[in-house]
Design a protein that fits this description.
With about 350 residues, the chain is mostly helical. The protein has helices at about 5-20, 30-35, 55-70, 75-95, 120-125, 150-155, 160-175, 180-200, 205-220, 225-240, 245-250, 260-270, 275-285, 290-305, 310-315, 320-335, 335-345. The protein has a single domain, classed as ADP-ribosylation/Crystallin J1 (ADP-ribosylglycohydrolase fold), CATH 1.10.4080.10. It starts with a helix and ends in a 5-residue tail after the last helix.
Length: about 350
């Protein structure tokens, strides 16, 4: 059974991990631990009193906007999300908000900031073409495809159609990332989010294992499916060992590509499945793509533990947390009769 608490914790958790990791995204471990101490970065690095997140959270919000716009306007979800991404691209390339847009979040001035956007996302969207699994736009497997799809896992409430959730997440990633490993991990990620945000009884490990099994079925004919599932199983196994966290992360990669981002997130979330702070802190203090591994870990551990597990210090000073919460509420309410019409006013074009 879905709960608003988990929806909010999923999106806010992702923004928290993103903001914590964004400060050290391009730093090596030697620099991080020298600058922040033996535990690495554990508190926000504030700018003008705010914890700033990266393009990861920006695109997550535009994904959610696209899904809800697709629902209310009875249009293709992938087409609608692609339209939202094209508007996100405007925020990265135009200095002034002076147009009429489909996405209501284009009115949020804080989103009109360039926060180290990925070149693959920028180039794919600016091309005017929309990639798909059948017609890939490139051969990229960068993590820009996975870091933005948590809302897909929240969107569909019926876990009996979870394969629809998985395939939609993969297709949304394939809009910009055409390699098999650019979109397959997104299916697994959305599956995990869907289960843990709608099933109070499922354990995180069982959700991960179920996601691997379903991904193997959906993409059984793909060349790289064996490598991918082996890596995620390795993340599960490492989380159950008494090993150093940095050793485990190094065994899984650096997170610049989607399969490594998910593997690191699965490791951190499983290893510290009862401790939101420890999971997120572990996920960002390494050599790799700290904001993306932090964002995906935050989405997972947030959805699993809920809002009560998130320390107040991470909610204070997080930029536009009110907007993130509002979008989580919209994802939760859109198919509830007493909320449907009111929510739809923001998304009907």
């Amino acid at each position: 059974m879905k709960t608003l608490n988990k929806y909010k914790a999923c999106l806010l958790g992702g923004a928290i991990g993103d903001a914590l990791g964004y400060a050290v995204e391009f730093e090596r471990e030697s620099s991080i631990f020298s600058k922040y101490g033996k535990n690495g970065i554990t508190e926000y690095k504030l700018k003008n009193g705010m914890a700033l997140f990266s393009d990861d959270t920006q695109m997550t919000l535009f994904t959610a906007n696209g899904l809800l716009s697709g629902y209310y306007n009875k249009s293709s979800y992938t087409d609608s999300v692609h339209t939202s991404y094209k508007e996100w691209y405007i925020t990265q390339s135009v200095r002034q908000n002076n147009g009429n847009y489909h996405s209501w979040i284009m009115k949020v001035s804080q989103l009109w900031k360039r926060r180290a956007p990925g070149f693959t996302c920028l180039n794919s969207i600016s091309s005017g073409k929309m990639g798909s699994i059948r017609k890939p736009i490139n051969e990229s497997k960068g993590c820009g495809g996975i870091m933005r799809v948590a809302p897909v896992g929240l969107f569909f409430k019926n876990t009996d159609i979870i394969s629809q959730t998985d395939m939609l997440a993969a297709e949304i990633s394939a809009i910009t990332h055409g390699h098999e490993l650019g979109y397959i991990p997104s299916a697994t990620f959305a599956h995990i989010i869907n289960l843990i945000s709608h099933d109070e009884k499922i354990t995180l490990k069982n959700a991960v294992l179920d996601s691997i099994s379903n991904t193997e079925k959906l993409f059984r004919n793909c060349e790289h499916i064996g490598y991918f599932t082996k890596l995620i199983h390795k993340a599960v196994e490492l989380s159950e060992r008494k090993c150093n966290d940095l050793y485990a992360v190094h065994e899984l990669g650096e997170g610049w590509v989607a399969e490594e981002t998910l593997a690191i997130a699965v490791y951190c979330a499983l290893k510290y499945q009862n401790d939101f702070e420890k999971a997120v802190v572990t996920s960002v203090n390494h050599n790799g793509d700290s904001d993306s591994t932090g964002a995906v870990t935050g989405n997972i551990i947030g959805a699993y533990l809920g809002m009560d597990a998130i320390p107040r210090k991470f909610l204070d000073n997080l930029e536009i947390s009110d907007v993130i919460s509002e979008i989580a509420e919209d994802l939760y309410n859109y198919d509830i009769d007493e909320h449907r019409d009111e929510t739809g006013k923001k998304y009907i074009i």
